[in-house]
Design goal:
mainly beta, 6-stranded mixed beta sheet, 39 strands, 7% helix, 38% strand, elongated
Length: 577
């Protein structure tokens, strides 16, 4: 009898322990990425099959049910309290506005309602918080995540592709392929296993204050990166007090130093060791990133160096390249890109809202979709491409681009036209306009040229294919004396370089063929300062290609005292077949 009683007690204890274990698993608090935003219907019209109802789908990635109590959802700047809910093991919950419950119920189970739900059609930041105000998941969606243009017009949900990579942005999202436009409360129609094992790197740095360096990574890293185990060092040495993640994206770190950095000092951040990304993959990293104290931008410190306004796909491949011609570090969070208007832009956005230090004599290309730019152009350094999805849509035929400081004081301004492209191009689609000389006036039409075909018609983030060199020259010089105007990136034009001793001069330049007939009037009575450059691209006054042969360049100039000078130089034009 005693043995039976003891056996019964042991069995009861075992059952109770098992139940407690199950209960502890069921009601354990989810960690980061355990609950994710897995589907977004931001623009439900025109209707495809589902009713015209906006919704957000949550997915429980854990193998047991999760109860959410006191959670919140932030949509842009609006915070919504979520109702208490339990999401099944590997299950879903769909959030809609209360007013839409009756219409949506036939299409979905596991519906939970909010007082209202207003999603932005073009894109918005969505952040899921637990009851402790900790970020569990963050998504900054955009309608451009629909890779098919017709689905951007509405009626189709955005779905996450691989649930094992909740920290990845646009590459892990696309349009639903469901015949009704979405899969609310069900497994996503585009579920697939993806590989995001690219080696992470530091995309840029900025300094929120004099003792904090904010480091931006190309992908979200594991939280163990905050452990100060010697992975991060600086030259000259600075004491690192702590390292913290930057919510809600967690793709940036704040490294806090014990002392403030000094002005006019070049620092380097050294990253060396093993890093783990948010998907659990480990990498050996060895990187050196320069940083320092940034200075406010002044006029002509930065120049517009290259623009693409007519992309191949008529989509989001526009880019704007900026060159820092100053001797100071400039943080692009202090710079605005404007479009339209004459003296002031009609629209202006931060060049890089999160900050990006542009060092002296270096380039950066701001692009709408970095992955598109990488696909279409040769990019020698991916770090020099910075995504700016708020970049204005540049008109193809003509427009005005501004660089300003925060108070809209002009740094540089460029009024471009499609006619500035090489006239013999069959099309300017996919061809960027490149600046020849950073020190010459931006608005000088002779200072711009179509990117060379040999460079892939664009050079985002590095030296232009058609850049000119600073030359030591006499009073008048032609360089080169033999050129081949075929837009292959090699000696495509000849330049007439002029240097004067007077402050004000008038210049006329005419090009004659070997029979003495004028074929091209480069300039007529143009007012110049102490130096000027004029470019001949091998076309005559009718925009026809001049035949190969020898030509005479006649230069006439007058100074303030009306002293007339005539100079002649020879140039040979040879076409390459």
């Amino acid at each position: 009898m005693i043995k039976k009683t003891l056996k019964a007690l042991l069995l009861t204890a075992s059952v109770l322990l098992t139940q407690n274990d199950i209960l502890s698993q069921t009601y354990s608090e989810p960690n980061r990425y355990d609950i994710t935003i897995s589907e977004i219907m931001a623009k439900p019209t025109p209707e495809i099959g589902l009713p015209a109802v906006e919704y957000i789908e949550l997915h429980n990635r854990l193998p047991h049910p999760c109860t959410l109590h006191g959670w919140r959802l932030k949509l842009g700047n609006t915070v919504k309290d979520l109702p208490d809910m339990t999401i099944d093991s590997c299950g879903y919950a769909v959030l809609i506005a209360q007013k839409n419950l009756e219409n949506f119920t036939p299409f979905c189970d596991h519906i939970f309602t909010l007082s209202s739900l207003a999603l932005t059609d073009g894109g918005q930041q969505l952040t899921l918080y637990n009851q402790h105000d900790e970020v569990i998941h963050y998504v900054s969606y955009s309608k451009s995540w629909h890779t098919e243009a017709i689905k951007q017009e509405g009626g189709w949900a955005l779905e996450m592709i691989d649930a094992n990579w909740p920290c990845v942005g646009s590459e892990n999202w696309n349009s639903s392929t469901s015949p009704i436009g979405g899969t609310p409360g069900q497994s996503n129609s585009i579920c697939n296993t993806l590989n995001f094992n690219s080696i992470p790197f530091i995309t840029g740095v900025t300094m929120p204050d004099s003792t904090t360096l904010r480091v931006h990574f190309s992908k979200t890293m594991s939280a163990d990166i905050m452990e100060n185990d010697g992975k991060f060092r600086t030259e000259p040495p600075l004491t690192i007090l702590n390292i913290k993640e930057v919510p809600p994206e967690f793709s940036s770190l704040d490294i806090r130093f014990g002392t403030a950095i000094q002005p006019n000092t070049d620092y380097k951040l050294l990253l060396s060791g093993t890093l783990t990304d948010c998907g659990g993959n480990t990498y050996q990293i060895d990187d050196r990133i320069p940083f320092g104290k940034a200075a406010p931008p002044e006029p002509f410190d930065l120049v517009i160096n290259e623009i693409l306004t007519n992309p191949i796909d008529n989509g989001n491949a526009d880019y704007l390249e900026i060159y820092n011609r100053s001797n100071r570090i400039i943080d692009l969070k202090d710079v605005k890109v404007g479009y339209g208007g004459d003296t002031l832009p009609q629209k202006a956005v931060a060049a890089v809202s999160k900050g990006w230090q542009l060092h002296p004599k270096t380039y950066v290309a701001l692009c709408k979709q970095k992955n598109v730019t990488l696909q279409q152009y040769v990019c020698k350094d991916e770090k020099r491409l910075v995504e700016c999805d708020s970049l204005p849509d540049f008109a193809i035929s003509k427009g005005i681009i501004h660089l300003t400081d925060r108070s809209l004081q002009s740094i540089d301004r460029f009024c471009y036209t499609e006619e500035m492209h090489y006239p013999k191009l069959l099309t300017s689609k996919g061809v960027s306009l490149e600046r020849l000389y950073p020190d010459m006036p931006t608005q000088d039409e002779n200072n711009w040229r179509s990117a060379a075909e040999s460079a892939g018609f664009g050079t985002p983030g590095y030296e232009n294919s058609q850049s000119g060199n600073t030359l030591e020259h006499n009073e008048f010089e032609i360089n080169p004396e033999v050129f081949s105007p075929d837009n292959d990136g090699y000696e495509d034009y000849a330049e007439v370089l002029c240097t004067f001793t007077e402050e004000e001069n008038r210049v006329s330049i005419v090009i004659f063929n070997n029979r003495g007939h004028p074929v091209k009037h480069l300039t007529n009575n143009m007012l110049c300062g102490t130096s000027a450059r004029f470019r001949w691209d091998g076309l005559d006054d009718r925009n026809q290609s001049a035949p190969a042969g020898m030509y005479v360049v006649q230069i006439e100039c007058w100074n303030l005292r009306t002293q007339k000078t005539i100079r002649k130089r020879k140039v040979v034009s040879i076409y390459l077949l």
